[in-house]
Each structure stands twice: as C-alpha cells, then as structure tokens.
Request: fold
Amino acid sequence: MALQRHHKIIIGGTTTILIIFMITISILVYTLFIRQEYNRSILEGKISDSQADTQNKINELTNNLIQTKNSLSSLDIKIGSVTDEIDLLKSSTSADFSGIIEDAIKSVVTIRTDIGQGTGFIISDDGYIVTNSHVLAGGSKINAITYEQETISANFIGYNNELDIALIKIEGEYNSIRLSDSDKIQIGEKVIAIGNPLGLQFSVSEGIVSAVNRPGPTGKEAYIQTDAALNPGNSGGPLINKQGRVIGINNFKIGAGESLGFALESNYIEEIVNEISQKAMEVDLL
Reply:
C-alpha cells in the first residue's frame, strides 16, 4: 500500500529531526572534546610551569644550602680568628701575662761580676747571652746565674761600646728567647721588663711602649721609651712584648722623672750581635 502524503511528511520530519539531533550531538561531543583538550593543554601548561617553578625553588634552596655551608665554614674560620684575637687580648692583660713570663723568664740570667751585677738573656740554645757592656765594665770574672739558680762561668765574646751591647757565652743547652722585629712596635702596646732590680732576682714589671726612636746617650735614635719600672740591676734584661719576644734590651732611665725607662730596639741588638760574632770568628781564624 502506498504511503499517503501526510505519512511521508511525518517520516521526513522525523528523519530530519533525527539528523539534526545527531548533528547537534556530534557538535556537542566535538565541542566537549575540544574543551577537554583545551583544558588538558592548560593543565599541562600549569603543571609544566609548576614543575619549572618547583625546580627553580629546589635550585634556589640548593644554592642557599651551599651558601649557608660556605658561610658556616667562613664562620668557623672567623671564630678561629676571633679566638686567636681573644687569646692575644688575654695575654696582653696583667692577669694573663703569666704564661708568657713563665716561658720567657727561663731564658733570662743574672749577670754577676766581681764588682757588680745586672741582667742578660739567652738568644741561642747553645748559650749565647746578650747584656749591656756597662754591666761587665771593670770586672775580671763573669758568672751567669740561671733561673734554676745554677751559677755558670761565662766567656766574654765581644762588645759594642757605642750602643752598650756585650755578647758572652756559657756552655750547655738552654731555653732561648727570640728577637722581634722592632720596626713593628706599636706605641701603646703592653710590654714587660724582666731583670734583677737592686739585686732582686728575676723581677718583672709591666708597662707600655710610650714612644719609639728616642735618642740615646750618643744621640742615635734607636731606643724605646717605656713606663715599665726600670732600676739598677735591670740593665741588660729583655723588654718583652705580648707574643713573648724581645723588642729591646733595657738600658737606662732618666732619674729625674717617673717611669722614663729606655731600651735599645731589637733590630739594633741583632745587628750588633752579628757584628760581634763576625769579629770573634775572624779573630779565631787568625
């Protein structure tokens, strides 16, 4: 039986609606797919950015850790340096000079002749001693009395009258004390003088460097001025800095003033001792 006209219209309309519905569904599905892809792309971008940011933060954290470690290492060094400075500061105070004195005093000797006495200090382990030449003047015998109270006969090596330096020697092995570079002396630094003032053996007095390059009896500007107490018997003894080294040899004081002592600078001591030793060697060779 043939379809009537209205039946054809209904079927055609239904088909059209189905086609339109399918097309619409297809468009919706496609749109959803595109949106999902778009969202996925955005999400991946965010994830990538987040990963990059995270990596940057990790790198930054690593750099900070490295810097912190280096800072700690540097701090350790600085702490060590500060500790050294504190030790140096402690040694420059009266209460803590004792450690330096304990070592230095073992290298100091009492010089006794048949007409007087003074002080000297051992500058080499084999017994060479520096003192003032006026300590020995007029004497016929020289004895050195060590910190252990051992009396030892000393041999005269030579002297320099201009700068009042004499070199003698005792036999044996001893604790020596080192000379410092007197060009590095600072005005105001703490010092100690070791000697035998008025016969009081191995006495110690503390003071500061008041001035440098002061003129001496001959006009030579080679003396340290100090307020450390110096008295008869201190002559020839060492003036020691806070490192325990000799910066000068105690030589004279101005009697009319208070705390006006003078010591020949250590660089001149070294120069004169070398000259005396050289002359003594030349005499031996003859």
About this structure: Residues 72-80 have pLDDT under 50 and may be disordered. The first helix runs from residue 5 to 91. The CA atoms of residues 155 and 256 lie 36 Å apart.
